[in-house]
Every structure is written in C-alpha cells, then in structure tokens.
Design a protein that fits this description.
This protein is of the alpha/beta class and 331 residues long. Strands 2-1-3-4-5-11 form a six-stranded parallel beta sheet, sandwiched between helices. A six-stranded mixed beta sheet has the order 7-6-8-9-10-12, sandwiched between helices. The radius of gyration is 25 Å and the shape is elongated. 42% of the residues are buried. Pfam families: LacI (PF00356), Peripla_BP_3 (PF13377).
Length: 331
C-alpha cells in the first residue's frame, strides 16, 4: 500500500501548533506570527502536505477560478482573428501569476448563455470577464445583477466595469491622416453595429469626416477578412471614384486590399487603406498596412487587474487606453 497523504493534523503536530493555526497559514492569512508561520511552512515542506482545494473553498468561499466568457461561436474564436488567442493567452498568464485559474466559456447561443449564468451564479468562479459582447447578449445585464466581480473587455451596452481602448479617437486619427494626405472620397468598412467597438469606430470616422467637410460612404462588415473583401467590392460599385478607405479592423482591411488588387486598383496610388488593431499580419501585407494600434495585451492585463481588485479599492471602474496611428505604406 502507498503512504497516506499528509493531513492538516500531521502538519500541526510536526510544527507544534494548533490545527487552526496551520489552516490560517496555508490559506494565506497574515495574522500569524512570522516565527510560527515559518515553522508551519517547514512542516508543510518536510511532510509534503498539499492543501485540499475543495475543502479550502468551502471555508474561504473562493474557487481561485475566473471565467473568461466569449460571446462567439468556436469557428470565430478559433479562426484567423488573433484577438481571441492573444486575449486568452494574456488573461491566462496574468491569472496564473496571481495564483488563479482561467475558465474559458463560449456563449454564442441562448442555451450556452443560460449555462454560463447558472455556472457563475452557482459560485463556481470568483469573477467573470466578458469578451466580444453583442447588443442582444443577455449576459452583461445578468452578471451585473449577480454578487460576483464582473469586467468587460470593451465598453458594454449596460453599466458594467470595463476596460476599453479609444475607438472613437483612434478612428478619427486614421481619417485625419487620410485627409491630410489629400484624399477626398474616404469610405469606411464599419464593424458590426451590434458591438460597441463597431459603433464607436464608425462614430470616430463620421466625426472626423464631418470636421473635414467630407461625406460618409459606408459599408458594414463583421470583422472578418471575407466581409472586408465583400464590403470593398460594394463600395467600388457604389462609388468608383473613392480614393481611400478606413476599415474598422485589420482583417477587413486585408480583405479590402485583396479586393482592390483584383479590381486593378493600386494601393496607395489609387486607393489608400487604413486598418485598426495592428495585428502581426499588418506588417506583412502588400503593401504593409497603415493602421491604428489597439493595445490588446495592455487591455487584457488591465481587465484582469480590475476583476481581481475589490471594488472599493479600484481607482476607477472604467479604463480607456490610448490608441496610436502606425504609418506604413498603404496610406
């Protein structure tokens, strides 16, 4: 027979302290005398004691798990869009550094959304982070009513703590760059209008054009490469004389570049193109893509910091990070 797993009582006996004292030490409480704490930790190491996380969670009411909920289907999350993998990787790393575990949950259907609500309200996680929410999603409103810390990546449609980037200002930067380059007929490939990022980037485009006394020319995509190509073809059909396009993300901009090439338009000579996000592929398009840098890693890191910080200790429930125009050869 194998040796029995060391118990809390065995550690207490080895350290010559009470079981309650050992419990306080292994649960990270700071009220224990340093010398006694050292003795307990020595006993833990000598005996090879491993705390029972299930039992500990019953006492502390903490699971050390944080849910990351993505309101997209698997085909979108595990696609060529690097946003999702970068956010998941950053969140997992930041939580691991804090001694926490990320629980990835996809919620693109009413059934999946109901399961997420049940899971979170059942006390299985200590917090929840929301990513890629759409206007009709019930989750932001549902978690806002729960007694669990919740933070959104991006501005949600309801009143909820969030970390966003300056979508309006970033889009405005892109359009002003095109205007400053002498472009007259500047179109936009907008993102989904049931997502606040899509709405805000379109607002920034329209505000900047209005200030420059230019008219809006808009087609709507869904943040995918294929939708960018389709939207670009429609824009060329509607206004063959357009000489610039702002795409609300880089994948749609890459699709637009492909459509322009097939239509015989030279970039940037005939049509200048600016994207948004500054994904890795933006440096390797032909020509390299001018774009607005969306600080994904910093935004995901700030989201983790916010969800792990007790509400009363936060400087703010709303964080907006700056964007930066990255000028390359496409505009």
């Amino acid at each position: 027979m194998g040796s029995r797993r060391p118990t809390l009582e065995a550690v207490a006996a080895r350290a010559r302290v009470s079981r309650a004292t050992v419990s306080r030490v292994v649960n990270g409480q700071t009220t224990v005398d340093p010398d006694i704490r050292d003795a307990v930790l020595r006993a833990v190491a000598e005996l090879g004691y491993v705390p029972n996380s299930a039992a500990r969670s019953l006492v502390t009411r903490q699971t050390d798990s944080i849910a990351l909920v993505v309101s997209e289907p698997p085909t979108r999350v595990f696609s060529d869009d690097p946003l999702f993998s970068l956010v998941v990787r950053t969140v997992s790393s930041e939580l691991e550094s804090a001694g926490k575990q990320a629980v990835l949950m996809l919620a693109s259907s009413p059934q999946a959304q109901a399961r997420v609500e049940d899971y979170v309200s059942g006390g299985h996680v200590d917090g929840i982070m929301l990513l890629s929410m759409h206007g009709a999603d019930p989750l932001p409103g549902a978690v806002a009513r729960m007694d669990v810390p919740a933070v959104s990546y991006g501005r949600p449609a309801v009143d909820l703590p969030h970390v966003d980037n300056d979508n309006v200002g970033g889009a405005g930067q892109a359009v002003r760059h095109l205007v400053g380059g002498g472009r007259r007929r500047i179109a936009a490939i907008a993102g989904p209008q049931d997502m606040t990022a899509g709405q805000d980037r379109l607002t920034g485009y329209r505000d900047a054009l209005r200030s420059a006394d230019r008219r809006s020319i808009v087609a709507v995509g869904d943040f995918t490469r294929a939708s960018g190509a389709t939207a670009m073809r429609h824009l060329l059909g509607d206004d063959p004389d357009l000489d610039a396009v702002f795409a609300a993300n880089d994948l749609m901009a890459i699709g637009a570049l492909q459509a322009l090439r097939k239509a015989g338009r030279r970039v940037p000579d005939d049509v200048a193109v600016v994207g948004f996000d500054d994904i890795e592929a933006a440096s390797f398009t032909d020509p390299p893509l001018t774009t607005v840098r969306h600080p994904v890693v910093e935004q995901a890191t700030a989201m983790v910091g916010l969800v792990l910080t007790p509400p009363g200790e936060r400087e703010s429930d709303r964080v907006v990070l700056p964007t930066e125009l990255v000028v390359r050869d496409s505009a």
